[in-house]
Amino acid sequence: MRLVSPPSVCRFLFPAMLWRMPAGEKCLYLTFDDGPHPTITPQVLDILRRYDAKATFFCIGNNVRKYHETFELLRKEGHSVGCHTFNHENGWKTKDDDYVKSVMEANELIHSNLFRPPHGKIRFSQIRKILECCKDVSAKINIVAWSVIAYDWDKSLTPEQVYNNVIFNAKDGFIIAFHDSEKAYQRMIEALPRVLEYFSRKGYKFKAIPENSD
């Protein structure tokens, strides 16, 4: 069973994580995980530009190292960025110290107070250690989850199903998770412009999650 939106118990158990943004402005917050990718990420940027949309890109440190020009393009075009560990580690299968080291190593390249755990899998102890390591930075670390996940990486789904996952579940202030990765590409690249068109016609704007704010 696919949970497109996380159950309320997740928000209760992990109150330190950001699950949605404030409602009231008719805004949606698109996010993209696992990049930057040298060819896919620029295609995403082209689509976003068409709709005057901003988004947040949660970047893998090793990809930032390899494709730094693409990463800088995200900054140049006014999108926000966040850390997604250095090598896409699964927090449930990684020792706490190794996991935190991966986050810190990635953020030496990314320089953001936004962090999203890969797969959404992170232990309470890892959250505590990450917050402890970052307590002296100028802005409090924000561990970002999502309100709706598109499941664009799931090869058993069609682009139409990915599109429906978003339009039938997203609401004002919701954080929507896509992926600018090879695994998700075929479904994401078809569903994304349709999602932007659908909500633009309904008067929604698309904003980036702010960096470096409490």
Largest sheet: 6 strands, parallel
Q: Report the radius of gyration as a whole number of Å.
A: 16 Å
Number of strands: 9
Order of helices and strands: HEEHEHHEHEHEEHEHE
Q: Give the termini distance in whole angstroms.
A: 35 Å
Class from helix and strand fractions: alpha/beta
Question: How do you describe this structure in short?
Answer:
With 214 residues, this protein is an alpha/beta fold. It has eight helices and nine strands.
Give an account of the 3D structure:
This protein is of the alpha/beta class. Helix content is 39%, strand content 16%. It is built from eight helices and nine strands. The strands form two sheets. Strands 2, 3, 4, 7, 8 and 9 form a six-stranded parallel sheet that branches. Strands 1-6-5 form a three-stranded parallel sheet, with no helix packed on it. Helix 2 runs parallel beside helix 8 and helix 5 packs across helix 6. The N and C termini lie far apart (35 Å). The model has no long low-confidence stretch (mean pLDDT 93).
